[in-house]
Amino acid sequence: MRLEILGTRGNVSSSAPGHTRHAGVLIDGAILLDLGQMSYLRRRPRLVFVTHLHPDHAAFLLTHRAPLADIYLPERCSIVPTAKVITRPIQIGEHVIAPVPTIHATNARSLGYIVRRGRRRVFYSSDMISIDRRYHRRLGRLDLVVTDGSFMRRGGLVRRDPTSGQRFGHAGIPDLVPFFRRFTRRILVTHFGSWFNRDVLGASRRIEALSDDRVTVTAARDGMRIEL
Ligand SMILES: [Zn+2]
Ligand SMILES: [Zn+2]
Prior knowledge:
16 strands; binds zinc ion; alpha/beta; seven-stranded mixed β-sheet; single chain
């Protein structure tokens, strides 16, 4: 399986060289996870899967133009009335893409995606606080996890909706590493907040320092390629 991390910039106005584009992961040139930039469609993916309807993951929310692509969303969207709402695993050629509900927002339903090809399995979470215990078995053994780098501080930024009591926001990277290490030995951090852009080299080193003899943690950059 070949992954290309198209964009690593989170939902922030700042950017840094190598971290200018919003969310997108292209798998085997065919499957695009998140459409943070409309320009990603020039890669002509066969299918597009959006994790949640926030503009740094679904650029059509800003352009108000439906993308000319086969697109799966976690929920209906009036801008893309032809999009399908994903409720179960989708098979296309050798790949199976399975949704896993994540906790992130109160104004949007959010999903991570497991992409499987043969024995290889990858999970892409995009923005998240956590994943409900009932979905942990679905994650199983993963060759790679690609997850949220919005915050370096422990606890991230999590708020609670006063009416519903629902949590929303982002966990910190030091929370996500212990969460995901039971499923994988390799974690790639993307979707960086402004903390990262202030000192890319120092920030990348702090992320790598979360590695130990059982798990490798690294920072992604725009255009990074990974072979599994
Ligand atoms: Zn985001
Ligand atoms: Zn979001």
